[in-house]
ABC transporter permease
Amino acid sequence: MTLPVFGRLPLSALLGLLIVTATAALFLFGPMLAPFGQEEVLGTPFADPSAGHLLGLDQNGRDMLSRLLYGARMSVGVSLAAVVISFCIGVPLGFLAALNGGWPDLIGARLIDVIMSIPVLISALVVLQALGSSLPVLIGTIALLDSTRVFRLSRVVAQGIVVMEYAEVARLRGEGLWWMLRREILPNALPPLMAEFGMRFCFTFLFVAGLSYLGLGVQPPFADWGGMVRDNQQGILYGLYAPLFPAGAIALVTIGVNLVVDWALAGRTTVQGENR
């Protein structure tokens, strides 16, 4: 996929890239940059910001900045792992269903429709209540639920590609299934899949934060931003800013990813129009 030249970056794209780059840096190095441990009690609850604690202390007297830095790895890592797994499941199955067609494709599509008719939150709550909220269960549950959406998009995109002339010519040449997937379908399906990856990450990121806020997401002793909002929400009653820091981080990352996805898609559309 061709992306726009960096010298022509609009302000929104530049802002989005800065946010995504900063988020990636926090994901990789956040715990190393944290001045204190994520469970280390350092003072009285909801202490005001100071030189030693730039964002103050939380409801248990732990350093808010340190917990934000630790939480970045957990919040982003869980969401990213779930999205990657969902694409590894949904994309191949969607492509195969579109290529093979017939009854397997029809039955699979109707089964996916039935699963998607159940609200995602309800499905996740039932599974997590039954199996617990360990990280493998949390990531696997979200990945499986998201893979249905990825399967549906991949199938529709691939169905539009397999009827094109170049795909028909490849079939007439006797090209095999793997060659068709690798050389014809995947390259032409990348733009919508990349856009869906960004949107899926935003949805999953907010979904994980919501589950943590409800107490079914990332569990202690791990810090994550959704859980930090829940733990510090009582501070709002006293005019404190403690719950606003993780909430602002969640909103900022979501906005940044959306800005980058919009820029990438707009740049590709512009380049395609110039080529025509």
Observations:
- Confidence is low (pLDDT under 50) at residues 1-5, 270-276.
- The chain has one domain: 11-43+54-265.
